């Protein structure tokens, strides 16, 4: 169960979620699906306001993609982001500025540090007692009228039951590397589980956790190897392709994109051509990176990060960003 800006859901089936939303409010799903849904509504939103409630998760990027496409096709799109910058979990301030400039060029109005209090609804024009979204109310009471509202603001696990049972709860139910809660007889996986401070809210980590827990419960080393099974987190790269006047603007981000003390950072930036590349290296491992505008290096960087393998000791770090250019 989850709550998103006052929209309560009690079942995971998307149909059930959609049934609970007023007409004119979309829950973000995969970018392509959302863009198709939004395009289907274009007749209704042409020249009128669409408000995207954008969070910092992966879904926020997908919502921006749909918003960019709608703006290009004549809708007045406003992106409201509660955080300081767009995609703040994935992008550093410099990359977020480039992304914002690009969206603004496409006609998307971007508001950061903009807290939304709720979605306003009114009677649906079709009658029958249905409701339709009419706008969003900001924390300062200002109401933005809207013909369509897209919610991509994330989910929060409902932790009351776990808390009442005496389990350790932070944002989610806290679990260790064997997905065990503070009560050794209780495990938690999926959207409600918080591992190493991370709540994923995505299907792939939930599936990986389910798979690992099955192995933990059937006995460590049950495969005869004597190995214990430990969850080390799920590594997922964020990709986004936005329309651009002369093609598209690509973006990829992964891992920790802000360095910790002692980390090495390599940057390549060209604001005019809207190209930005950055990697963060800790000791001999790649721990994060951002590529915007030119994703030529994404394959090799993603492999080095996902594999968590030592980087070659004999190559300068900037080679990580330029090797795909044939050493230029
Ligand atoms: C609209 C929407 C779109 C999404 N799109 C994507 C996507 O494109 N890609 C992606 O990777 N992820 C997506 N997700 C996230 C993905 O659905 C979840 O990460 C995944 O379903 C998590 O699995 P889960 O088993 O933890 O939770 P759920 O799938 O939510 O299952 C939880 C189950 O527990 C039941 N339950 C809850 N409380 C109780 C109780 N007290 N007693 C008994 N049963 C209870 C619920 O009824 C539900 O059946 C989307 C989510 C939503 C809401």
Automatic annotation (TrEMBL):
Keyword set for this entry?
Answer: FAD, Flavoprotein
**Domain YjeF N-terminal, first and last residues per copy:** 10-113
User: Top-down, what is the taxonomic lineage of the species of origin?
Assistant: Bacteria, Bacillati, Actinomycetota, Actinomycetes, Kitasatosporales
Name any cofactors this protein relies on.
FAD
What superkingdom heads the lineage? Answer: Bacteria
Record PROSITE patterns: YJEF_N
Pfam families, alphabetized:
Pyr_redox_2 (PF07992), Rubredoxin_C (PF18267)
**Annotated SUPFAM superfamilies:** FAD/NAD(P)-binding domain
Name listed for the protein in its UniProt record = YjeF N-terminal domain-containing protein
**PANTHER family named in the record:** NITRITE REDUCTASE [NAD(P)H], PYRIDINE NUCLEOTIDE-DISULFIDE OXIDOREDUCTASE DOMAIN-CONTAINING
């Amino acid at each position: 169960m989850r709550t998103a800006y006052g929209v309560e859901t009690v079942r995971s089936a998307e149909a059930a979620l959609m049934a609970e939303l007023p007409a004119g409010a979309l829950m973000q799903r995969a970018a392509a699906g959302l863009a198709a849904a939004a395009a289907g509504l274009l007749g209704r939103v042409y020249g009128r306001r669409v408000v995207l409630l954008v969070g910092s998760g992966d879904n926020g990027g997908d919502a921006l993609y749909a918003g960019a496409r709608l703006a290009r096709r004549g809708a007045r799109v406003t992106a409201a982001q509660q955080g300081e910058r767009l995609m703040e979990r994935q992008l550093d301030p410099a990359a977020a500025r480039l992304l914002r400039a690009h969206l603004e060029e496409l006609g998307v109005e971007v508001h950061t540090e903009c807290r939304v209090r709720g979605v306003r609804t009114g009677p649906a024009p079709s009658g029958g007692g249905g409701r339709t979204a009419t706008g969003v109310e900001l924390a300062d009471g200002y109401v933005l009228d809207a013909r369509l509202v897209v919610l991509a603001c994330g989910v929060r696990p409902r932790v009351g039951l776990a808390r009442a049972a005496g389990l350790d709860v932070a944002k989610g139910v806290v679990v260790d590397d064997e997905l065990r809660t503070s009560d050794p007889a209780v495990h938690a996986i999926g959207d409600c589980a918080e591992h190493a401070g991370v709540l994923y809210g995505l299907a792939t980590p939930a599936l990986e956790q389910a798979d690992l827990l099955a192995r933990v419960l059937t006995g460590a080393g049950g495969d005869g190897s004597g190995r214990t099974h430990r969850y080390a987190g799920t590594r997922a790269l964020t990709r986004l392709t936005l329309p651009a006047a002369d093609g598209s603007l690509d973006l990829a981000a992964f891992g920790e994109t802000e360095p910790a003390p002692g980390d090495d950072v390599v940057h390549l930036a060209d604001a005019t051509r809207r190209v930005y590349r950055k990697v963060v290296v800790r000791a001999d491992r790649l721990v994060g990176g951002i590529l915007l505008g030119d994703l030529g290096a994404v394959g090799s960087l993603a492999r080095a990060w996902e594999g968590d393998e030592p980087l070659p000791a004999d190559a300068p770090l900037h080679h990580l960003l330029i090797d795909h250019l044939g050493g230029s």
